[in-house]
Design goal:
heterotrimer, A: 487 residues, alpha/beta, Amidase signature (AS) enzymes, eleven-stranded mixed beta sheet, 16 helices, 11 strands, B: alpha+beta, Arc Repressor Mutant, subunit A, 3 domains, three-stranded antiparallel beta sheet, 15 helices, elongated
Chain lengths: 487, 484, 96
C-alpha cells in the first residue's frame, strides 16, 4: 500500500513530481490539509502561511512546465524551525520576546533552499531560544509527540520532529546545540543529522551558543538527509565560522562508499541511567553491523563524564551574551511600564523571557563574571579540547562511533521538572557538539509501549557522506521510519 | 606642597573605511538617521559579524608607524554591557590580545618662542586595539532617540602609558598622534565629526613620589583645545581638593568645554563587569611577515622624520617646517616645487608657500587641491626672481595674479611689462656716478670694509626707479670698484 | 578552593538586566546552586598544558574586502521597532 504523499520521502516525491504523478501544488495542498487536520493535536507549528506556500508551489510547477526545474528539492515543502530567518515571515524562537518579530532577511540556509526550489513551509515550534529537550519551554504552547500525545516530542527541535513525523512536512530543518536535532529525531522516529560544525552556515539562525550551534536536516530517510544536506551545506562568506570545504553530492557519495567499517562502541556511553529497552535496541543495531562484517571495537572517551559540566558552562556563557540584544530597544518585546531605559531592560527581559532562558542567562552571566572566568569558562574550554581529543584518538582505530541518542525514549509532559535532571539527559549528544563532529540519529525500533527509539552514529569531521553510508547499511534492513503514527 | 600630574590618554580614532568593521554597509557622517545600517549593524536575531580586512590593514599600519610590536596572532573578545547605543549590548573589541602593543609617539613641546623648536620627547604607548563604534543617542525632552549610522564604524583605541605630566604635553601628544594618523591615511581625525575622541586619566602626586595617586577619568574632551583646558582644569581641581584636606575619589567626570567645568558622572549604580570572553563568531587573526612587509612598504614617512629631512635636505628654517609639516599635502607640494626650482632655492620656495600661497588660499577660502597655483609655477617664480628677471618687490603682485588665474608667472610679467630690462650701459653710468659721489665709502671699501658697497646701491636703485636687478647692481659695482 | 560556589543571584541578574521576582530568586538560587555544585566536577580534570578550544577548527583571517553592500531601508529598520520617531528608535530618556 502506498502511503499518502505527505508521508513520502523527498526521493520518491521528486520522482513523482518529475513524471507528473503529482504536482507541487497538489502536494502542498495535501500537506496543508494534513496539517490542518492534525496540528490541533500535535502543536508543531507556531505559524504557517498557506497562501505563501501555495504560491511557492505554483511557482515550482511553472518552472517544471518550462523545463527550469531546480533539482530534487524543487516543489518539496520543507518546514523550518522558528529560529531560522525567512524574509517576510515571523521569527519568534518560540519566545514572547520575539512574538511579533518579522524577519527582514533570509538565513543562508533559507536562501539556499529557495534557490533549490524548496517550499519554505511553516514556522516550527521549539523550546524557547532552543533551550530545552522537550519543547515544553515554548512560550506559546507545548508540542506533542505524534506517537503518543501524552509524551514530549523531545527538543529543542520538537516542532521539526513532530511535524515531520505527523506528515505535516516532507522534511524539516532543526538546529542542534547539544542534541536538539538528534534527541527529538529519536523520540519521533525520524532521521536527524547534526553536521560537522562549520559545514552549514549559521547566518540567520537565532544564536543560542555560537560555538556549538549547527543547523541540520530532519528527514524520513538517510538518503533524504543527504539531499537536504547537499542543498544547505557549503561555505558562506556571511559566517566567519563557516568552513571552506568542498561539498560533495552526498546522495551519490553515500551510495559509493562501501563497508565493512570499524565501528567504535564507547564504554562510557553504556552505563548507569540507560534505559534497558534503548540499550537493547542499540545492541541489536551493533549486532547487525557485526553481522555485516564490520569490526566492532570498544573505545574509550574518558572525558565523557565532564561533558555536561563543560557544555553548560560554554553554552550558557555564550547564550548570556548572544541574548543580550533582546532588550526591547530596536525590536522585540518592550515593557510598557518602563520609566527609564534601565527599567526598560529589566522589565522587558523579565517579561519577554521564560524561566529556562532566564535561568541559563543568569548561569552564563555568573560563569563569565569577574573572578570566575578562569575557573569556569577557560577551564571548560580546556576540557572541551580534551573531549575533542578523545574522539580524534578513537578515530585512529574506528571509522564511526555508535551510541544511544538519549538515555530514555520520549517522556511524559511535565515529567521532568528539575533542570539539572534534564541537563544530565543530554549526556550522549553534547560531546559531539563540544567536539564539533557530525552525528546522525537513526530510528532503531520501538519500545514495548510503542515509543520510538534512536541510535546515534558519530562520524569524523566533514565526512558526512561516510556517516550516512554507514547508517544506510543499517537503515536498509531496518526501515523503522516507514512506520507512521496513527493520529 | 608641590604636586606633579600624571596623565595617560585613551584616544579613539575612527578608521576611514568604505564599509563597517563587521558588516558590509557603508560608513559615513551626516547621513539621514538609520540609513547606514543592515541586519548585522542592528544586531537582528541570527546575524553574524565578518571582519573588514581594510580595518586590520589600517591598525597594523598605525602600529608599524608608531613602532609597536604587532601580535603574530590576536583574537576578538566581547565586552558585555548594556547601553541603548550598543545594538548587541556587547562590543566586539580586543581584550587580552591587542593587535599592537608598545611603541611610542614622538611629540614636540612648545618652544621658548614661536619661531624656536621645542623639546622633543617620546610618549610610550601601552597598546592599540581594534573595536567597533556605537550608535548615537540624541537626548530629547521626553525621550532619547537612537541613530545607528555610526554603529560598527571601525575604531582604533590608542592607549598611552601614564607618562605625561602637563596639559601642554597631552596637547602635543594628541597633535602628534593626529598628524601621524592623517599622514598614514588612516583617518581624517576630524574631532567635530567624532573621528578622534579623547579620554584622559589624570592623577596627581607629591613631586618626587613614585606611587600613583587616585585617578580620575575625564571624558568628552572632544576638541583639541578642550583636551588642554580640561586636563588643566582637572589638575587644578585635584590640587585644590588635596590641599584643602580632601580626598580624590576614583570616578569618571564629564568635561564641559563651553563652561570649562567638569561634573562627576552619576556613578553607574551597577558596577562594571564587562565579562570579556573570546567572540565565538569570529576567527582569530594571524599577521605574518609578508603581510607586515607589504604594509610597511605602504607606510608614510613620519612627520618629525620629514621635518628633520627638510632641515637637512632643503636647509629650511624651523619656522617654515613648522607650517609645512602638519600638512602632508603641503609638504608634497613643497617638495615638488623645490624640485622644479633647483638647487639653493628651496627656502625661497618654502617662503612663498607658507606666506603667499597659504594667504591666497585663505583669502579665496580654498583648499590646496582647489588652489590654482601649481608647484612648478612657484618654482618658476622663484627662478625668475633669482635670475633678476623679476624684481622681488613686484613679485607679490605677480603671485596674486597667478593665484587668481592659474597662469605661470612669465606671461604675467610679460603682459604687465614687469621684466627687469635695465641696459648695461645705463646701469654702468649710474654705478660710476654713485661711486664717484661717495669718496668715503669708496675709501672704506678699498680699505677692506665689504659692507661699504651697500652705500652705493641706494642711489643706483633710485636712479633706476627701482627696476634695477639688485644682483646685477652688485656685480656691476664690484667690477667697477675693482678697476679703481 | 573547596568552598561551595554561592551564586549571588541579585548581582548576576542585575548584570544580565533581568528583573527577577523574589520567588524566582529563591528557586534559581537553589537550582543553579545544584548545577554549580555539579559543575565543580571540572576541577578534577588535569588541564595543565591544554590549550583552550575556542573554535571547532583552527582557521585564521576570515575576512571580507572593504566593499559596501546595500543598506537596510529605514522603513525596514523601524518596522519591528517598539517606538520610533524622526526615523530614529525612541527609548525612555537615558540618564547618564
Amino acid at each position: 500500500m502506498t502511503p499518502p504523499h505527505y508521508f513520502c520521502t523527498i526521493a520518491s516525491l521528486s520522482d513523482a513530481l518529475r513524471v507528473g504523478k503529482v504536482s507541487s501544488l497538489q502536494l502542498m495542498r495535501e500537506v496543508i490539509a494534513r496539517t490542518r487536520e492534525v496540528e490541533p493535536r500535535v502543536g508543531a507549528f507556531n505559524s504557517f502561511d498557506e497562501e505563501d506556500a501555495l504560491a511557492q508551489a505554483s511557482a515550482s510547477d511553472l518552472r517544471r512546465a518550462e523545463g527550469r526545474t531546480l533539482g530534487l528539492l524543487d516543489g518539496i515543502p520543507i518546514g523550518l524551525k522558528d529560529v531560522i530567518a525567512v524574509e517576510g515571515q515571523p521569527l519568534t524562537a518560540s519566545s514572547r520576546m520575539l512574538a511579533n518579530f518579522v524577519s527582514p532577511y533570509d538565513a543562508t540556509v533559507t536562501r539556499k533552499l529557495k534557490a533549490a526550489g524548496a517550499i519554505c513551509w511553516g514556522r516550527l515550534n521549539l523550546d524557547e531560544f532552543a533551550m530545552g529537550s522537550s519543547t515544553e519551554n515554548s512560550a506559546f504552547k507545548p508540542t506533542y509527540n505524534p506517537y503518543n500525545l501524552e509524551c514530549v516530542p523531545g527538543g529543542s527541535s520538537g516542532g521539526s520532529a513532530a511535524a515531520l513525523a505527523a506528515g505535516c512536512a516532507i522534511a524539516t530543518l532543526g538546529s542542534d546545540t547539544g542534541g536538539s536535532i538528534r534527541q527529538p529525531a529519536s523520540f519521533c522516529n525520524v532521521v536527524g543529522l547534526k553536521p560537522t560544525y562549520g559545514l552549514v552556515s549559521r547566518y540567520g539562525l537565532v544564536a543560542f551558543a555560537s560555538s556549538l550551534d549547527q543547523i541540520g536536516p530532519m528527514t524520513r530517510t538517510l538518503e533524504d538527509a543527504a539531499i537536504v544536506l547537499g542543498a544547505i551545506a557549503g561555505h558562506d562568506r556571511n559566517d566567519s565560522t563557516s568552513y571552506p570545504a568542498q561539498v560533495p553530492d552526498y546522495r551519490s557519495a553515500m551510495t559509493a562508499i562501501r563497508g565493512p567499517w570499524r565501528i567504535g562502541i564507547p564504554r562510557e556511553y553504556f552505563g548507569e541511567g540507560l534505559d534497558p529497552e534503548v540499550e537493547s535496541a542499540v545492541q541489536s543495531a551493533i549486532a547487525h553491523y557485526r553481522k555485516l562484517g564490520c569490526e566492532i571495537r570498544t573505545v574509550s572517551l574518558p572525558h565523557t563524564q565532564y561533558g555536561i559540566a563543560a557544555y553548560y558552562i560554554i553554552a550558557t556563557a555564550e547564550c548570556s551574551s548572544n541574548l543580550a540584544r533582546f532588550d526591547g530597544v530596536r525590536y522585540g518585546h518592550r515593557s510598557i511600564e518602563a520609566k527609564d531605559v534601565n527599567e526598560l531592560y529589566f522589565k522587558s527581559r523579565a517579561e519577554g523571557f521564560g524561566q529556562e532562558v532566564k535561568r541559563r542567562i543568569v548561569l552564563g552571566t555568573y560563569v563569565l563574571s569577574s573572578g570566575y572566568y578562569d575557573a569556569y569558562y577557560l577551564r571548560a574550554q580546556k576540557v572541551r579540547a580534551l573531549i575533542r581529543n578523545d574522539f580524534l584518538a578513537a578515530y585512529r582505530d574506528v571509522d564511526a562511533i555508535l551510541t544511544p541518542v538519549a538515555p530514555t525514549p520520549a517522556f511524559r509532559h511535565g515529567a521532568k521538572k528539575d533542570p539539572l535532571e534534564l541537563y544530565l539527559s543530554d549526556i550522549y549528544t553534547i560531546g559531539v557538539n563540544l567536539a564539533g563532529l557530525p552525528a546522525v540519529s537513526i530510528p532503531c525500533g520501538f519500545t514495548s509501549a510503542g515509543l520510538p527509539m534512536g541510535m546515534q552514529l558519530v562520524g569524523q569531521p566533514f565526512r558526512e557522506a561516510e556517516l550516512l553510508a554507514i547508517g544506510r547499511a543499517y537503515e536498509r534492513e531496518h526501515p523503522w521510519a516507514e512506520r507512521h503514527p496513527s493520529l | 606642597m608641590q604636586y606633579e600630574a600624571v596623565i595617560g590618554l585613551e584616544v579613539h580614532v575612527q578608521i576611514r573605511t568604505e564599509s563597517k568593521i563587521f558588516a558590509r554597509v557603508r560608513t559615513g557622517y551626516g547621513f539621514e538617521p538609520n540609513t547606514l545600517t543592515d541586519p548585522v549593524v542592528l544586531a537582528l536575531p541570527g546575524v553574524l559579524p565578518v571582519m573588514n580586512k581594510a580595518a586590520l590593514d589600517a591598525v597594523i599600519k598605525a602600529g608599524l608607524m608608531l613602532g609597536c610590536r604587532i601580535a603574530p596572532v590576536c583574537k576578538w573578545d566581547r565586552k558585555n554591557y548594556f547601553y541603548p547605543d550598543s545594538p548587541k549590548n556587547y562590543q566586539i573589541s580586543q581584550y587580552d590580545q591587542p593587535i599592537c602593543s608598545g611603541g611610542s609617539v614622538e611629540i614636540e613641546l612648545p618652544g621658548a618662542a614661536r619661531n624656536l623648536m621645542g623639546e622633543h620627547r617620546r610618549i610610550p604607548l601601552t597598546r592599540i586595539h581594534l573595536e567597533e563604534d556605537v550608535g548615537k543617542l540624541n537626548h530629547a525632552a521626553g525621550d532619547s532617540l537612537i541613530d545607528f549610522n555610526r554603529a560598527g564604524t571601525p575604531l582604533m583605541e590608542i592607549v598611552s602609558e601614564p607618562a605625561m605630566h602637563s596639559p601642554d604635553e597631552a596637547f602635543a601628544y594628541l597633535t602628534a598622534l593626529r598628524t601621524v594618523m592623517i599622514y598614514a591615511g588612516i583617518s581624517d581625525c576630524d574631532m567635530e565629526k567624532g573621528q578622534l575622541r579623547c579620554d584622559a586619566n589624570i592623577s596627581i602626586r607629591p613631586k618626587g613620589e613614585q606611587k600613583l595617586g587616585t585617578k580620575v577619568e575625564l571624558k568628552n574632551l572632544n576638541s583639541i583645545s578642550f583636551v588642554r583646558d580640561g586636563i588643566s582644569h582637572e589638575i587644578k581641581r585635584q590640587i585644590a581638593l588635596l590641599s584643602s584636606g580632601g580626598k580624590i575619589s576614583q570616578e569618571t567626570r564629564d568635561y564641559d568645554g563651553m563652561t570649562g567645568t567638569s561634573q562627576a558622572l552619576r556613578s553607574k549604580e551597577m558596577a562594571h563587569d564587562y565579562r570579556y570572553f573570546p567572540d565565538p563568531d569570529l576567527m582569530p587573526v594571524k599577521v605574518d611577515d609578508a603581510w607586515k612587509d607589504q604594509l610597511q612598504a605602504e607606510c608614510a614617512e613620519l612627520p618629525f622624520e620629514k621635518q628633520r629631512r627638510f632641515f637637512e635636505q632643503y636647509r629650511l628654517p624651523y619656522t617654515i617646517t613648522s607650517v609645512l609639516i602638519p600638512d602632508r599635502g603641503l609638504c608634497d607640494y613643497f617638495e615638488k616645487a623645490a624640485g622644479h626650482a633647483g638647487e639653493g632655492r628651496a627656502q625661497a620656495v618654502g617662503n612663498w608657500i607658507v606666506n603667499d600661497l597659504l594667504r591666497e588660499m585663505n583669502v579665496q577660502k580654498q583648499s590646496l587641491a582647489e588652489s590654482k597655483v601649481r608647484p612648478e609655477h612657484i618654482a618658476e617664480l622663484v627662478k625668475l626672481i633669482d635670475e633678476g628677471t623679476l624684481l622681488s618687490n613686484l613679485a607679490k603682485d605677480v603671485f596674486v595674479e597667478m593665484a587668481a588665474t592659474g597662469m605661470p608667472p612669465a606671461p604675467i610679467i610679460e603682459a604687465r611689462g614687469l621684466k627687469a630690462t635695465t641696459s648695461v650701459d645705463e646701469l654702468e653710468r649710474w654705478c660710476r656716478e654713485a661711486i664717484q659721489s661717495n669718496a668715503k665709502s669708496l675709501a672704506d671699501f678699498k680699505a677692506g670694509k665689504d659692507s661699504a658697497i651697500n652705500a652705493f646701491k641706494g642711489p643706483v636703485m633710485k636712479a633706476a626707479k627701482g627696476k634695477a636687478n639688485p644682483k646685477l647692481v652688485d656685480e656691476t659695482l664690484r667690477r667697477l670698484l675693482a678697476q679703481m | 578552593m573547596s568552598s561551595e560556589p554561592n551564586i549571588n543571584i541579585e548581582h548576576v541578574a542585575t548584570l544580565a538586566r533581568i528583573a527577577l521576582t523574589d520567588d524566582e530568586k529563591r528557586v534559581f538560587a537553589s537550582q543553579l546552586g545544584d548545577v554549580l555544585a555539579y559543575i565543580e566536577k571540572l576541577k578534577e580534570v588535569d588541564v595543565s598544558g591544554v590549550e583552550p578550544m575556542a573554535h571547532a577548527f583552527p582557521v585564521f583571517n576570515v575576512w571580507a574586502d572593504d566593499v559596501p553592500g546595500p543598506a537596510l531601508p529605514v522603513e525596514a529598520v523601524l518596522r519591528n521597532a517598539p517606538a520610533s520617531r524622526d526615523n530614529m528608535i525612541s527609548v525612555p530618556k537615558v540618564v547618564e
